[in-house]
Every structure is written in C-alpha cells, then in structure tokens.
Design goal:
By secondary structure, the protein is α/β, with parallel strands linked by helices. 34% of the residues lie in helices and 21% in strands. β18 and β19 form a beta hairpin. α13 packs parallel to α14. The two termini are 44 Å apart. The model has no long low-confidence stretch (mean pLDDT 95).
C-alpha cells in the first residue's frame, strides 16, 4: 500500500496542508470510516445521499492519521491535532493521488474492460502473470472511479504487475480510469448489449470501451476481441498513443490468438491455443470454467501473459491453480445431485445467448433447464430483446425454461411459440415469485438434470441456486 508523508501526499494530489506535521507518515487510504486500520489517510467521499465528512471523528477513532478535506467545510475541533489536506474535490484528489503513485512505481499495468467477461479475464490474467511476477488485482467489483484509484493505492512498492478491471455505464468513464491507471496492456473482452440504455447502441458501447486505448503508455499494446467488427471499425477512426500495437484474440480464424479442439463440460473447458493459426508450445489446456466465451477470455489472458514473457509451462500451471470470482458460471450441485450452473452475477442479451449456447452444447443430461431473470438497463427495446431470448431457444437448446420478472414473461411467451412440444409438457413457465419458482423446480428436478440460472444483478437470481442447494 502507499506509504508517504503527509507533505508528499499533499504534493501528489495538489492539496494545502492545514495543521499537523508534514513529516507524519501515512500508510494506506480509507474511505469507509467503519473499517479499523492504522495510520491511513481518510478520504471523505461526497455522494447524492451521503457525505463522508460527517464521519471524520469515526475515521480517526478507526486509525486514520490524516484527512483529505473539501475547502470551505468547517474542520472538526476535536481533531485539531491531525493534518487536514484541503482540496476542491476529495474524489478528484483521490484520483490524482492514485495516478501520481502509479507513476512513481515501476509496476506495469494491465487494464481490462468489456461488456462481459471482465472479471473472469482479470482473474485469469492475474493467475497467469502471478506465476512469474508479484501481482495485485482488482478485488471484487472495485472497478469504477472510486474503486480503481483505491486498488492502485493498495500496490506495494515491490508490486511488479497490477491487473485492473475497468467498468462503466456511460461515455468518458473508461477514459477517466485508463488515464489514471496508464496501462501498458489494455484488453477489451467483447462488445455486448450491457448499458444500451445509457449508450444507445452497440456501436456506442464499442466507442465507450475503446476509450481504454486512450490511456495506454507509448509503445503499449491493445488486445481486443477480433470476432467483433465494431471494434475494428472504431479503431479505424481513433488516434492512438504513439507506437501502440494492436493484437487480436477470439474464436474466429482471423484472430492472432485463437483455439481449436474445444471440449466443454459443465465444470471446465479444454482447448488448444493457436497463435497465427499454428499450434503453440502451450499444448492442450483446461480451464475451470465452462463455455466457448470463457475460452475466448482465456485467450486474452494467455496473450497478455505471453507479452509479459510468462513461460508456457507456467501458463498451464496458472490455469490449474486459478480461483474465479463467484457467480460467473460457477458449478455447484442441487441437494439431489443435479448440476447447477450459477451465472447469476449479471445478464445482458450477449451473455444470455452465450449461456444458452453453453447449455445447448452439453450432452448426457436428463433435462437441461434454463432459469432466467430480467435483463435490466436495456433501454426502449427491452421488451424486444427479451422476446429474442425466448426465440433464441429454438431448435431444442433446452428441455425446460423458467422465468422470473416483469420483462422475462416475454421470454417465456416467445419460447412457448418456438418450442410448442416443451410448452405442451408444461415445462415453460413464468413465476412472479422466486420462491415459488425454486419450489416448483425442486419437485421436477432429477439427479441427472442440468440447471443454468442467470439474471441481472438486481434480480438476485442466486437465491434460486441457494434454494436448490438446500433442498
């Protein structure tokens, strides 16, 4: 974590010190006054419904030794012995501090964005790079304008690589994050349908994701999904930093990094990486997560690792030791032994189609059930997009569909039209209540069945998984 004097921190973030000693040493940064620490800088964040300045005394009691402070606000008299660093905006000062700290360290940075697969790719890249380097990665979903600076400030002086996830909901947000982080390698996993409400179209999403290239260091590398023409089109009109190299990965034959001999199960995936259409020294690999889309994510991680000189044998070992963040096609078991794939962290049309394709490609099960909650923040076409998910099930991609939410009823209605035999058996159903859905499914579920559960974060579809596990 950052360890600097108050005077150094003031210089790094453009603050004016008020009180305290300039040589007071600060170790780390805290934004939550409730978390006990020792010697941190407290950064009071101001939001629409909260103001961190109100918790300065609690932060001091938790161990804070210095405070960022917005100019014009009254200083707490009870904390007169502490140094206060006065700034116009505490969040902007936090971001300046993180950027300055990143610039002082020798660590290289990998930045990752995309509509889907950011977290999985982050976990994979960190695991592979961690076989040869001291690596720090984004924890949980700390991937926004607050979380990314805090992650950078957690780097120790001897950190060699930071793997940073960058999320967004609108234009300009990725540009802000990438200019704070200044990545040496940037990865765009894919362009889906997330944030259509804010960005208007998939072309708009591609434009927003491509902002990550604007912060690349001179001579850096942009790794992007070569299966997505919108990225290629967007790059044609962009002015990139000097000397940036463009590299592609994906499942199409034109991608620089691609794959063959793909072998999918509910628990893992096997594939042979190809570089420029040729087999590599990596041989055949297995990753502990199912799905063709996750093979694409793995290829992005492999490409980044090879850019950093990670040896083929270490890449194979890295995947063997990989630990993934939960609820991203996380295999588990129902109480009766049926396989359950918990993919309930989030959902958009691209991700749901990938999940349906995964289920359709898995054989040897009794019934394959798909349980879908609403996809949120899709804008004015949300009903049409939910209808299309039901129509996408045509061709027998599953033997049962259960839906939940006011939008997903359109999915089940569309599925009933394209799967009349399944509908006649009563295996396409919509539920207003998740508890009723889980109870109905438990009665029907057989030990040799497969269930995939997916929905937007706000739908909390993991509650269905938990009910199936409890029996």
């Amino acid at each position: 974590m950052i360890k600097r004097t108050v005077g150094q921190i003031a210089s790094m973030c453009g603050a004016i010190r008020k009180g305290g000693r300039a040589d007071e040493m600060v170790s780390g940064v805290m934004t939550d006054s409730r978390i006990a620490g020792s010697g941190e800088l407290f950064v009071p964040i101001v939001g629409e419904r909260f103001d961190g300045h109100a918790f300065a005394e609690q932060a001091a009691a938790s161990g804070a030794k210095a405070m960022l402070w917005q100019k014009g606000r009254e200083l707490p008299a009870s904390l007169a012995e502490l140094p206060f660093l006065l700034v116009d905006d505490t969040l902007a000062a936090l971001q300046r501090l993180a950027s300055a700290y990143r610039g002082e360290l020798m660590a290289r940075v990998v930045g990752i964005t995309g509509s889907n697969g950011k977290t999985t790719t982050k976990d994979m890249a960190a695991a592979l790079l961690g076989m040869q380097y001291r690596v720090l990665k984004t924890e949980g979903n700390l991937n926004n304008h607050i979380g990314l600076p805090l992650t950078l400030l957690k780097m120790d002086e001897d950190t060699e690589v930071a793997v940073l996830e960058m999320g967004m909901s609108g234009f300009g947000e990725i540009e802000l994050l990438t200019k704070i982080a200044m990545p040496d390698v940037a990865i765009i996993t894919n362009i889906g349908d997330a944030h259509l409400l804010q960005l208007g179209s998939r072309a708009g999403i591609a434009k927003a994701k491509l902002e990550i290239a604007l912060g690349l260091s001179d001579g850096g590398t942009l790794l992007y999904n070569g299966d997505e023409p919108l990225l290629q089109e967007g790059l044609a009109s962009m002015k990139l930093p000097e000397g940036v190299a463009l590299r592609t990965f994906g499942l199409g034959p034109s991608c620089e990094w691609s794959a063959e001999d793909m072998d999918l199960s509910p628990f893992d995936s096997g594939f042979a990486p190809l570089y420029k259409s040729e087999r590599t020294a990596l041989g055949t690999l297995r990753i502990p997560v199912p799905g063709r889309h996750n093979i694409s994510n793995a290829l992005a991680a492999i490409a980044a690792a090879r850019l950093f000189g990670v040896k083929p044998a270490d890449i194979a070992r890295g995947f063997e030791t990989l630990s993934l963040t939960g609820m991203r096609i996380e295999p588990t078991r129902a109480s009766n032994g049926a396989v359950v794939l918990n993919d309930a962290y989030n959902a958009n049309p691209t991700a749901v189609r990938a999940a349906i394709d995964l289920v359709a490609g898995l054989e040897g099960f009794g019934r394959r059930w798909i349980v879908l909650g609403d996809m949120l923040e899709l804008g004015p076409d949300e009903v049409t997009l939910h209808v299309e998910m039901g129509e996408y099930l045509a061709g027998g991609k599953a033997e049962g569909l259960l839906t939940h939410g006011p939008l997903s009823i359109h999915t089940s209605e569309a599925a009933a039209r394209v799967l009349p035999d399944v509908a006649e058996q009563g295996l396409i159903r919509h539920f207003d209540n998740k508890e009723e859905l889980a109870a109905w499914l438990k009665e029907k579920l057989q030990p040799d069945d497969l269930v995939l559960v997916k929905g937007s974060r706000g739908m909390r579809m993991e509650q269905v998984v938990q009910a199936l596990e409890k029996g």
